[in-house]
Amino acid sequence: MLYLIGLGLADEKDITMRGVEALKRCGKVYLEAYTSILTVGKERFEEAYGVKIEIADREMVESGFDEVLATGCEEHVALLVVGDPFGATTHADLVLRARKLGIRVEIVHNASIMNAVGCCGLSLYRYGETISIPYFTETWRPDSFYDRLVSNRRCGLHTLCLLDIKVKEPTLDSLARGKPVYMPPRFMTVNTALEQLLEIEASRQEGACTAESLCIGVARIGCADQRIVAGSARELLAVDFGAPLHSLVIVGDAHPLELELLEGFSASASGAPSTEPAQSQ
Amino acid sequence: MLYLIGLGLADEKDITMRGVEALKRCGKVYLEAYTSILTVGKERFEEAYGVKIEIADREMVESGFDEVLATGCEEHVALLVVGDPFGATTHADLVLRARKLGIRVEIVHNASIMNAVGCCGLSLYRYGETISIPYFTETWRPDSFYDRLVSNRRCGLHTLCLLDIKVKEPTLDSLARGKPVYMPPRFMTVNTALEQLLEIEASRQEGACTAESLCIGVARIGCADQRIVAGSARELLAVDFGAPLHSLVIVGDAHPLELELLEGFSASASGAPSTEPAQSQ
Questions:
Q1: Which of B1, B14, B21 lies closest to A16 in CB terms?
Q2: Does B116 touch chain A (CB under 8 A)?
Q3: How confident is the model at residue A269 (pLDDT cuts 50, 70, 90)?
Q4: How many domains does chain A contain in total?
Q5: Distance CA A273, CA A229 (A)
Q6: A281 lies in a domain?
Q7: ∠ CA(A116), CA(A121), CA(A123), 5° rounding?
Q8: Do B116 and A86 touch (CB under 8 A)?
Q9: Are residues B102 and B55 in the same domain?
């Protein structure tokens, strides 16, 4: 059996009882560590649940896992995934490869940013397509996600923007030399995401995200020090959201109850406090 | 402190370790039992975690909870919610009322159908607005959700349809007499949802859900006997999905990887098996 176990959002306490039971059944346990991160290292899981955990990077999950699957997973194998196992396409692909080999796969669901973002006060029902914002480079400044944002805005829908994560990325130089040297991990901030969006807005001019657009920056959702701030893009550019992970919501046509809930996270001095202690809201 | 604790989707094992810790801190524990249901009763939680639980019906959560909040929640209070606490608007409203009274609220997130539906193989990023399908009556046959389905389809997006639940609904007769008598609980099936959608389609004729549209019926997601079947609306009408809860997905423009994953759940004899045992896929 291959178990894909969702870990939720913050630390070793966000795994479910079902997840812990599955974990303890497994001879081999991997932690997927490139599509998202927790606030704690694998050691905390090893201590809390008495298991030994190997880190699985992109290469391992996308190709190295074929060796694991080739064993038939008769000794139960677990892949721990931050959030829910189906938050990233790469895990759907793994399920497909396992299925082709006749290996049974059991899923242990958990919260992910896709549903936990509900805590910022906007109804989950009223989100349109989710977009991913990649880091711009000198020569690569894609804007296809802007089309999806325009489409959501036209339908009055909110847009969740997932922000780029660069973990274990080799430098171009080192690749050219054939001996990968890895850059330090980078996690896109709400501020960088907004700068890039405003740059695209300036050239496209379709009004999907202007300096005055109502947005919500969220950081470390589900953690004791989570931060949620609602305000115009211009206001949020000045906010320091702290440590990763960050996400951004572009607000569509908000209902009165939604606006009332957002007031509690207002960036402007006249509003209620924009952040509150210890996972509270 | 008021704790809103998500329970996930199936039974007492889907609560997180953080949720269990919070639960044990509380002097009063309520289980919200009208926006969704688990496959087990409150007794299983009481036995597993050594707490006493009161059932909170709609009336209790929407107005009766004001008495609980009036105590200031100095003795910690927990409201257990199936799925994630922000799956239903009613809980966002409760957070707002608590906040106005200066009561701290802590959220314990969990999986909900909004993200767990990722298990059927379609990318969560490519869903549009979620729709709720209410039971038709003789005199009330609303179709406003059809507009949102049309809009999603035009953008090529998938649509998650949440199906009506009637729990503790008084009969009209008994209301007239001023002494409520409750009807047995009802949970809309995939079949009823499709019948209603096809009836609207027949009058509106915008092609958002025809007998040939590719749909996915899902039942008891996250449970050992979950069922996922993909096929045309016509094919799914003939499928018995078994016990509640059911949901329905109307497929938008699917990518090749999505279609490959759906094959594993095909309703047609030529496809792969449409269901698999014990929470596996």
A1: B14
A2: yes
A3: low
A4: 2
A5: 9
A6: no
A7: 80
A8: yes
A9: yes
